[in-house]
Amino acid sequence: MSAHDDMFSAEQSCWFVRKVICWRAAASVAWAVLLLPPITAAFVILSRFNLLHPIQTISECLSLLTSASAVFSLILLCGVILVVGFLNLEYYTVIPTIACSKIALLGQLLHPRQLLNSLVHSIMGMIVAWCCAINIGGRYETLGYPCPQSDGSDGSPQMCLNEYHLALLLAGAFVGFSHSLLGVIHNMNYVSFHTVQQYKYLRFKGSLPLVVKCSATQALYSIRNYIVVYFFLGYIPKAWLCKTLNLDSNSSAHPLDSIAGLLDLTLLYHMWISASFLLFTWHITLLLFRIFVTEVYSFPVQSSFTEDAHQCLSKVLADKQPMILKFLALQDLALLSQHSPSRRGEVFSLSQPGGHPHNWNAISRECLSLLTDLTQRLVIYHDTVATNGRAKSLSTGSERRTSSETSAQRVPLTAPFTPDLDSPFASPALRRLTAPVEQCSPWFGTVQSPHVMRRVPKLWSTSTDSQVNGSPQSSPASVPSPKQEASKPSLLAQFLQNRKEQLPEASSQALFADSQAHIWALEGLSYLVQASFSEDQFGVVQTTLPSILSSMLVLQEAVDRHFKLPHASSKPVRSSGSMGDSTHKTLRFALRATLKTAIYRITTTFGDHLKAIQMSAEHRKRLQQFLEYKE
Amino acid sequence: MCSLALFPPPLPSGQTTLCESNNELLSRTSTEDLHKQESSPLSLYFPRESLKLHSRTESSSKAAFLDHSETLWMRSAAAWRDGGFTGLLNEITNSHAEVPPWLSVSSGCILALLRKVSSFHGSLFPHLTLSSEDMIAEFSQVLNWSDCVVRAFAWHPHTDKFAVALLDDSIKIYNPKSTTTPTLKHRLQRSVAAVQWKPLCASALAVACQNCLLVWHVDPCSLSTRPSSGCAQVLSHPGHSPVTSIAWSPSGSLLVSASPMDTAMMVWDVALESCVPLQRVGGGGVSFLSWSPDGSHVLASTPSALFRVWETRMWTCERWPCVKGRCQSGCWSPDGSRLLFTVQGEMVIYALTFTDAPAGVTTCTSKGPQAAAAVADLSETTFNTPDGDIIVGGEIQSLCWDPTGERLAVLLKGDPQAADRPAIIAVFKTRTSPIFELLPCGFVQGEPGEEPRLMQFHPNFQHGAQLTVCWSSGIITHVPFYFLSAGVPHLGLSGSPSLPRPQARPADFANQSLFTELIS
Question: Chain B window 254-273: which residues touch A at a Cβ cutoff of 8 Å?
């Protein structure tokens, strides 16, 4: 735990992470480990299945599964699952990190923390692939085998390199690596909360077919890319291994980095099913982690003991860290305000000596500050865009023309590849090819939109809640300083200028990245206000009703203004075939809808009584629109 | 148990029901009503001839072009695109002259096998063999849907506007306070089975279409009469078509949709455009949905003799197997505690009572009743009218309960072949105390030769209840029921919804029993 905050809040966040989050993560990993043997058995059967001898296959599989090597590989796989579970816990975030430009995305990909993640995933991928090789058996089983042609001229038979084994291991490493890259691009570490509450088992069961489907498709694409890479670069690891391990490459067998070698359908099938197995086990672990972590946690509204006071809803809501705690508290607030009259009663209650509505005050203050915060953010963003928008768009327009010429002259190789950088199916290999060009620029990380500039610390440091999870926080010094390469800076600058602001929606998405919190705050407030009409005996809500209404109306105005900006209301393309959660892309629409519904909920409940509330003429006009259902 | 024999006889031919006042249904003769029809701004008439029906079907344009000989590859690719795997197999089997014989034979075998399997599946769930139009007609709440001029109708839950889906796949929105009537058309808006406005929102209208779900955002202040299709959100999920029923949650946050082809019921977060499939095997699909007004339960009936009641907190369900047929229709009491439903093949209305979990106990499973109680018998009854005997009763097409919970409208199917068995709307008065019972109120009838197809209560009628009926001729009429409701919150607000019911019901049943005892 990084010792940055004051002791008290650190202690508070400790209790939740220690008592709840860690246990939930552990439970999810335990379930993933328990699921591993059946998944492995299914994999073995699928990989060795022979249509002509079904019974023989099954008996073979059974004997294999009970063998020592299979048990050993199972233990290894368990270790991998444990590491994956640990990485999930370490890297997860409830607020997605959204790259506002391709360069920012590249920055994320080349972040040391991410590089470490990719490295670990590659190694784990290789381990899983080794286990797969053991389980498939046959020609994949060992790295070396006695060469057929060297019939013991001297005492020890000459060992040859088993290229099938090597190809499978490298495929595992490649799939692991691309999985971690895709994880960044698709925000796979983002944990979203569902609007529909379901029991954990049912939710797991419901998302299982999706996991199978996207593991299989992702494996297919990864293997396709891998084959391309292996075809071109496969000789490097082969030669290196032969040299270091003193193995012969068997010249009589087909080399695999040839067209004939790679057209071996059995090999392709085995690679694909191994990759699917790998991705499926990891995705299952991720899915279980998401399900367990986002489970509703019921915080007490008030506590009768002072030592538990910091666990109360009102206290927990005010905490800044960890984010997951705040999110779960807001989720609990939204649910209690809808479903639980008794807990609502506690919110509306007065403190026993003194008669102050502490609970309501704390809760409403926290929710209102969230809303005000969002309003301010939107206003600042709008002002920035309004001041720079016109001039900037003119300049980029002219520069785009020149840069397209220059890039065509200078980097003919990368030009066709770069537009695909964020496409889900772009080959990671190509992505790596294009990477150095952009990385070695002196403007790396500086040529960004004003909005991104403000988010720079966030881009380079880790996201907020991962710091709390005890990760080594990358200090600013550890930011990789871009190499100063002075070759043709003007061209590169223009090239980068071309690359910036290529994700026009992204800045809008980034603005609303944590809007799930605001959505819950709006729901919680509006349901509580609605319930207060009949349940609030002491009139505690009445005192804050004007400020609630005015902050909602101000936010409504800001949101309306934001949606008038170009790109803000354009819908993102939905990518369904990935484990990454794309709900963050549409959060702004959800916020807009929830905001309107929340205001309508209050106006329909109170009706014309709202006319007795003190508010500015402008707000009154706006409210009248809502009362007449004209918004 | 109430039965049709207690009802006052139907009106003689030529008389139409006007309204309920002073506890009796008033009628008028059809000759004097023409000017009255026009005086009411919300009564509409859509003549069948005025609708321009498109006769386009997807495959019909093919015949208009000359046969062009393409290569086998091109044809296979086209078949794959148009007809999927079975289309490809069909193409290969049919072009046996060009492909190697083993390929055409094996694809023919696979095709036969697939057909066997699907016919076996279809024999388990016969509705799966229907075409999507027939399926919508079969499971729609609208009587004789395929022949209806008005295919769907929805009042806005808070204001006086409504949406009407017509036979030509357009939707019109009428608002008495505005002169513009926006017409909604969309490429994907075909075979509209249901429309519903989003609660706590002025503009969003969900439309259940043949292949998808559309959510229109119609700005109430806009003067445009043809909102662009950009105003519509398209929500679709593979395998989830045709959509026959939709229901918004009363809090406006979620939308559920059902298709008889899909065993999963979709819960949509419309703004996020994300959906959660709630899959339960058994039943072979979901045909009808109804969300209880308090938001706590959802009725989901299946094409088989089984329906489910979901509780919406943790989305678990209770299974309710029926003896005879599928659950045809259902409706909830305003407080969400009572469900009335009808079963296909039976002439009875059943009631289920749900008691809330005690306050403070967070049990997530709803502990419902053990068996349904029959509350009304609608078996065929013969009435002697001046025009001869009329047989009323039989199977029920749909049920509708008004938002105050005091009038229940039942659309009886009748027999289209027999002239003396008309489709008719029977209206009951409902009483919850001391015991729940239905009391007869009367029949709602239209012009001679018209039959009711679709009905809905106005969600916030100030002076009782108002039933809107869409007739087979394309006329939409409104039948008000004037009564003093015990349950209406006396807020004195215009346009205030019935949704929040803050005051507990006053035990003011004196009025009510006075009314009902007069008749029974």
Answer: 254, 267, 269-273
B160 and B283: one domain?
Answer: yes
Instruction: Please indicate, yes or no, whether residues B447 and B347 belong to a single structural domain of this protein.
Output: yes
DSSP string, B63-113: GGS------HHHHHHHHHHHHHHHHHHHHHHHTTTTS-HHHHHHHHHHHHH
- The pLDDT score that the predictor gives to residue A457 is 36
Nearest by CB to B313, from A194, A339, A592: name it: A339
Q: If you average pLDDT over residues A195-216, what whole number do you get?
A: 92
Site from B203, B269, B490 to mutate, A interface, most A CB atoms within 10 angstroms: B269
Query: Looking at beta carbons, which residues of chain A come within 8 Å of B158?
Result: 604, 629
* The two structure tokens encoding residue B49: 């001839």
> Which residues of chain A does B495 touch, with a Cβ-Cβ cutoff of 8 Å?
607, 627-629
**pLDDT exceeds cutoff 60 at A118:** yes
The number of distinct structural domains making up chain B is 3
Contact A84, A124 (CB under 8 A): yes
Is B347 found in the same domain as B310? no
pLDDT tens per residue, range A501-524: 556 678 888 899 999 999 999 999
Task: Note the ipTM here.
Answer: 0.85
B201 CA: distance to closest CA in chain A (Å) = 6
- Domain range for B293 is 131-321
pTM greater than the 0.95 cutoff: no
Same-domain check for residues B204 and B91? no
The lowest-confidence range among A300-314, A473-487, B24-38 is A473-487
* Nearest CB to A590 within list B272, B278, B500: B272
- Whether residues B290 and B145 share a domain: the answer is yes
Interface subset of A 166-195, CB within 8 angstroms of B: 194-195
**In this structure, is residue B493 part of a structural domain?**
no
**Could you say which of B201, B269, B360 has the minimum Cβ distance to residue A342?**
B360
- At B369, the pLDDT band (50, 70, 90 cuts) reads low
Q: Are residues B419 and B380 in the same domain?
A: yes
Residues B175, B223 contacting (CB under 8 angstroms): no
d(CA B374, nearest CA chain A) in Å: 31
Chain A: nearest CA to B503, how far in angstroms?
A: 7
Per-residue pLDDT reduced to its tens digit, A341-363: 999 999 999 988 888 999 999 99
Dihedral angle of Cα B168, B170, B174, B180, to the nearest 10 degrees: -110
B104: nearest Cα among B90, B86, B87, B85? B90
Task: Answer yes or no: is B203 within a domain.
Answer: yes
Is the Cβ of B252 closer than 8 Å to some Cβ of chain A? Answer: yes
A612/B contact by beta carbon, under 8 A = no
Residue B242 falls inside a structural domain: yes
Q: Apex CA A267: angle with CA A261 and CA A272, to 5°?
A: 130
Dihedral angle over CA of A67, A68, A71, A77, nearest 10: -120
Asked if residue B167 and residue B274 are part of one domain, the reply reads yes
Contact criterion met (CB < 8 Å) for A199 and B269? no
Contact A251, A261 (CB under 8 A): no
Q: Tens of pLDDT along B309-358?
A: 999 999 999 999 988 889 999 999 998 989 999 999 999 999 998 876 54
User: φ and ψ at B233, to 5 degrees?
Assistant: -90, 135
* Residue B262 domain flag: yes
CATH number at residue B205: 2.130.10.10
Domain spans of chain A, in order of start: 1-147+158-294, 306-389+503-570+578-628
Q: How confident is the model at residue A424 (pLDDT cuts 50, 70, 90)?
A: very low
* A155 pLDDT more than 90: no
Using a CB-CB cut-off of 8 Å, the residues of chain B touching A533 are: 500, 502
Measured between beta carbons, the chain A residues lying within 8 angstroms of B279 are 205-206
Report whether pLDDT(A400) > 80.
no
| CA dist., res. B6 & res. A357, Å (int) | 57
Among B108, B129, B150, give the residue marking a domain's end: B129
B117 and B144, same domain (yes or no): no
Residue A391 reports pLDDT greater than 50: no
